[in-house]
Structure formats: C-alpha cells, structure tokens
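JOB MANIFEST
job_type = single_chain_structure
chain_count = 1
residues = 327
[input]
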Amino acid sequence: MSQFLFFCVIIGNEKLLKKELSVFYPELKLSYSRKGFLTYKNTGVQYDLKSISELRPTFATRVGLSIGRARPEGILESVTNSLSEWNLNIEDCIVHSFSIGTDYELEAETKFKCPVNDYSANGKVVLDIVALSDSELWYGLHSVSPGITRFPNSLVDIDAPKELPSRSYFKLAEVIQLYGIKIQLSDIWLDFGASPGGASLYLLEKGAVVWGIDPAATSKLVQSHKNYNHIPTAVQDLSQEALPEDVSWVHADLNLNPTQAIKEVLRLCKKYNRTLRGIIFTVQLPNLDYIENIEEFEDQFYDWGFNDIKSVQGPSHKQEYVIIGKR
C-alpha cells in the first residue's frame, strides 16, 4: 500500500522545502502542492507512528503521515474511519486544527467534542487537521518526541511591544519559545548583527545582559537600556579581546554569506569554551544552492563542541533558517 506524507511550510518558502527534500530525501516524490502545504509519495522505507518523528526537514513547520482528505461536513466520519486503520480513535489523539492560506477555520471542538490545540506532551500522538479552504481539509498523524515542536503547525503567539526596532524580535522569540530555550536572569548574550536591535530587545526584556555587535546604529529604545552594551565593529574585524567574559549564549543574524558568517562567529566563540551553553545562528540563503550545505554547516558546529544541534525554520523566517546548538 502506498504511503503519503504531508509537509506544512511557511507560505512563500515552498521552494526551499522542495529543494531540501529533493537533495536529502530523493525517495519522496511530490504528489500535491498548495501554498504552505505539500504531500509526497514515499517510495522508500515506510514510516510508522514512531519513526515519522525522526523525519525533520529544516523547512517544514510540521511533518506527518497523510491519512485522508475530506470536506468539513464529512470530516468526523472520514477521520474516524481512517484512525480505525491505525487501531486508534479520537480519544487516543491530541487534536491540532489549523488553517493555511485561508480565513476559514474548522470548528473542530464542536465536530470532535474534545479540546483542540492543546500543547502536545512528549510521547503523544497528534491528529493534525489542516484547512486549505472552506471545502478542503487534509488530515494526518505525527508523534511527539524530543525536538518536535509542541504547538499546532509550530505557531506561537508572541506578546510583543507596539514599538519594535525590527522583525528580528519575532524571529528570535519564536525560536526560543518553540524549542524551549531557557533564558536565565543575568545571562550574558552576544548578539552578532544586532542593529537595529529587535532580537536584543527581546533578550533584554527577559532579563539578559546583551552585548550587541554591529557597526550600524542601534535603536534608542535598546541603546538606552541599562543591560545593553554596543560594540560598533564588523564581525570580521573583531578580536576576542574586545569581547566580554563569561558569555552564556550567542545569537547571530548577519548579512554575510553563511560560509563566512559561520567561520567568523565560531572563531570568536572559542573564547567561551568554558562558559558557552548554546548558540542560535541564522543562516541566510542568498541562493538555493546553500540548502545542499545544511549537514555540512551543522558539522562545523559539532566540530566546535556543540553536541545537540538542529536546523529549523520559525514562522517569521523568510529565505533563511537557524541552527540551534547546545552543549
């Protein structure tokens, strides 16, 4: 029996996911494509409910076993019948219902008579119901394991101030919430490519001490904060001696090609072999060919000394992704 998988992706970034799957998962063949949603036929070894959690392409916000398609009026019957083939029923699943590219929202709580969009705990099976229009619903299954985001389609609500220096605030806030990164009071962070200061502002709000590294000016809102320090030097001109001691975390979002950006940031991180707990590094993709280097880039972070590494894309990312490295 043929197996199909579904992939959710940030609208506009479908080409990134298609490129990644063609490079790293050639056994998957495109079957169906809409803005923000793709299905693939699996011509290789089939996945089960446990192993599907090991399929983690960088540019997918959700991956699962595609088990059916229905109209809203028939969704309960279709889902019930499909789940029975997996020896499951609704009560065995956490239900996530979300829309992609449409204002239509399925009244899933009413349809299924259960809570919807609860935070999904480790080990749980999640039934994903994806509305693409008021007449087209797809549904599938994924399982939750360490490293899998617990929110519907990896979407989190960010409570942000009205005035923000840049969208980097959302980019960093989403990644930190999605992947459970803990910011401790008085942690010292380096923020490479800080200006105008969106990411720095988020860290400052959480109680961190931030050193922003960027030759460009920082917004007055950030510059005036008592826990913010600005080093107005380009990363390629910076020496370790100019950096503070005892840094806990590094965030980097640089307008450089990824090869140079990784080299420079990891060079400076060598100062913190004793204290550094992790890094959140944004990889800019000036062209799609850099997608072929995802694993090679990860290897450079492993070689530095990070032992828990993932490459992911958050809801506010465009032609870019982040490498999260922890020690």
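[summary]
The chain has a mean pLDDT of 96.
The chain has two domains: 3-154, 168-326.
exit_status = 0
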